[in-house]
Write a structure and sequence with these properties.
With 115 residues, the protein is of the alpha/beta class. It is 33% helix and 23% strand. It has helices at 15-18, 27-38, 51-61, 104-114; strands spanning 2-6, 12-13, 24-25, 42-47, 67-70, 79-82, 91-94. The longest helix is centred in the N-terminal third of the chain and has 12 residues, at 27-38. The radius of gyration is 13 Å and the shape is globular.
């Protein structure tokens, strides 16, 4: 199977959640990623922030994906993990997003200011 994982709020917990100066790994989701990887599935890390952003995090987190992509609906993806309700794959799994009271618009604004 081909399994895709989003970066923000899925593989990492953004700094705004804990009001710190750096994003932190989401170890629970990373454990799921590694389980699928250890089962021999084709792994993709992707992000709406672009390929370079997804690649940076894949390297930082030591994920060794088979492919890095821009996040978009793809008919070849079997399972997509994301923090939002999405329709990107044959099966879409929404992971728990911490501090859901922060709107995506405010989070994106905060991300731009603090980078």
């Amino acid at each position: 199977m081909i399994i895709a994982f989003d970066v923000d709020d899925t593989l990492i917990i953004p700094k705004i959640v804990f009001d710190t100066n750096q994003d932190v790994p989401n170890y629970e989701t990373i454990a799921i990623y590694k389980w699928f990887q250890n089962q021999g599935h084709r792994m993709i890390v992707w992000s709406g922030g672009g390929v370079d952003y997804a690649k940076m995090w894949a390297i930082k987190l030591g994920l060794n994906p088979d492919e890095i992509r821009m996040k978009e609906k793809c008919s070849d993806i079997d399972i997509a993990f994301d923090d939002c309700l999405v329709d990107l794959a044959k099966v879409n799994i929404q992971v728990k997003r911490l501090k859901n009271s922060i709107s995506r618009k405010d989070w994106n604004k905060h991300k731009l200011i603090k980078r």
